């Protein structure tokens, strides 16, 4: 089925949402719900389909070309297709790197546009933001170096790439310091929404971003991780509910701040409170996400 469905997608236009939506979802799940051996073959099939990759390029670009919906919570058919496109490309990006699969057509994306899609949200539905952040995590994990996706500033053919304006910008290239801080502030603001799916995606993106920064410039990473605003964010998330420290996103944030020694964000008092709460609950009854986050926190401590 992978051959005819992927070939069918390659013959479509981005506005053929009724046909493309279930087709891209089928391709996405074909990658994820299969054995490793079949997964490698599936990646090879999709990455050899040039019309499909050209279509995905057009779909992703629609993210910043179309007007935002009037209702932020409303997921239109166009937005749903964008979600499928971003998730499929993020998956192809990771699996191409894992299996070192040959690429027959590259995708080109403007980094500024991708970041602005998260920073300046313009009433984007939550699921679309989550999908774009999945892609952003994938490119960060690969240090913006991929055979499948070329991501930089002004990726139009023949365009001149801007030169870094400082030593810090040069170390973080292609990111710039102002983009890093704008992204961090935007991620913090998204966490305040307290939507479970969004919170999971935001914390994962923040973790990957700080890891990327730490590899590029340790001072910048530690500076970002120790921002005083993080402490205010934690107090906002901890709204006084019972066992409020034992929330997956809170535990993962605490773990992140511990890893980068942000003592001005998380103190011995908070660590003790988490240990006390963990001692009082039945660990076997904790949700899997909470249990996993608590395990990572305790290992970091």
TrEMBL record:
Source superkingdom: Eukaryota
Biological processes per GO annotation: meiosis I
InterPro entries assigned: Immune_Signaling-Apoptosis_Reg
Entry protein name: MEI1 protein
Source organism per UniProt: Herpetotheres cachinnans
């Amino acid at each position: 089925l992978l051959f005819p469905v992927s070939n069918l997608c390659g013959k479509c236009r981005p506005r053929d949402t009724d046909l493309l939506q279930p087709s891209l979802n089928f391709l996405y799940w074909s990658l994820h719900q299969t054995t490793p051996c079949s997964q490698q073959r599936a990646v090879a099939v999709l990455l050899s389909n040039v019309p499909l990759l050209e279509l995905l390029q057009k779909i992703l670009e629609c993210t910043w070309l179309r007007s935002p919906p009037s209702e932020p919570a409303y997921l239109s058919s166009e937005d749903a297709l964008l979600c499928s496109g971003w998730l499929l490309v993020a998956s192809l990006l990771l699996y191409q790197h894992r299996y070192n699969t040959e690429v027959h057509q590259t995708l080109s994306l403007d980094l500024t546009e991708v970041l602005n899609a998260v920073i300046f949200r313009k009433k984007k539905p939550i699921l679309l933001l989550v999908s774009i952040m999945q892609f952003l995590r994938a490119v960060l994990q690969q240090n913006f170096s991929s055979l499948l996706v070329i991501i930089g500033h002004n990726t139009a053919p023949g365009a001149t790439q801007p030169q870094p304006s400082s030593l810090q910008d040069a170390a973080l290239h292609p990111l710039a310091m102002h983009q890093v801080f704008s992204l961090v502030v935007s991620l913090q603001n998204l966490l305040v929404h307290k939507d479970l799916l969004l919170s999971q995606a935001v914390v994962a993106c923040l973790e990957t971003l700080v890891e990327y920064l730490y590899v590029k410039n340790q001072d910048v990473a530690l500076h970002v991780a120790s921002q005083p605003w993080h402490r205010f964010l934690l107090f906002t998330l901890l709204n006084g509910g019972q066992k409020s420290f034992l929330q997956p996103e809170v535990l993962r944030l605490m773990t992140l701040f511990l890893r980068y020694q942000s003592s001005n964000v998380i103190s011995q008092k908070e660590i003790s409170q988490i240990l006390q709460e963990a001692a009082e609950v039945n660990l076997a009854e904790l949700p899997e996400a909470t249990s996993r986050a608590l395990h990572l926190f305790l290992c970091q401590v």
